[in-house]
Amino acid sequence: MSDYPKELIHPHHLFDGSEVVIRPIRPEDAPIEQDFVRGLSEDSRYNRFMGQLRELTPRKLQYLTTIDYDLHMALIATIQREGREVEIGVARYVVTPGSESCEFAIAVDDAWQGTGVAGILMLELMAAARGRGLKSMVGYVLASNHKMLKFCRQLGFEFQRDLGEGDTINVVKNL
After folding, report:
1. Beta carbons of 169 and 160 less than 8 angstroms apart
2. Which bin fits 70, alpha (ψ -120 to 50), beta or left (φ > 0)?
3. Which of 18, 69, 80, 138 is least enclosed by beta carbons within 10 angstroms?
4. How far apart are CA 91 and CA 108, in angstroms?
């Protein structure tokens, strides 16, 4: 496991002027990650995890927060609320074994969608992937997730529908 990549910590301002910090996730972020997932709407949880769940199992929570920062990177967007840090979004990639490609996933708290958080997270995630020498990023988006498909189109991803996988669309971007 690599050292915590402090160079990836960046403050940003959203469209409305709110300050958000983008930083790599840490194992001690498990409580705010769990709160974040619990706070997502059913639709947002389904679109992110492609299935029904209310909260993360302990094993899944550990997988999502204890990462190596090389083959698995996760950046969270946090704000300060009442003196404590609150997660409002997360974007991650996992390197495809034996390749220069990675698969990404992203989720943003429903109340923060449309504020610029997702775009900032994805641009930072793509920069981190490029910095690790990765050449392409892929994602699997539910065909019914029109907001995500529009977002990927805006970021310049190309679309490839999988034959036999009519419920998902592969999105690909060269880094």
Report:
1. yes
2. alpha
3. 80
4. 9
Which residues, including other chains, have CB under 8 Å from residue 164's CB and lie 6 or more apart? none
Determine the 3-state secondary structure of 74 from DSSP. strand
What DSSP letter does each residue of 139-175 carry, written as one string?
A: EEEETT-HHHHHHHHHTT-EEEEPTT-TTEEEEEEE-
Tell me what pLDDT residue 96 has. Answer: 94
The mean pLDDT value of the chain amounts to: 90
Q: Per-residue pLDDT averaged across 7-31, rounded?
A: 94
Hey, what are 73's tokens? 């990177």
Overall pTM surpassing 0.85 (yes/no): yes
Please name the residue that has the structure tokens 């946090």.
78
CB 74 within 8 A of CB 91: yes
Superfamily of domain 6-135: Gcn5-related N-acetyltransferase (GNAT) (3.40.630.30)
How far is C-alpha 63 from the chain's CA centre? 14
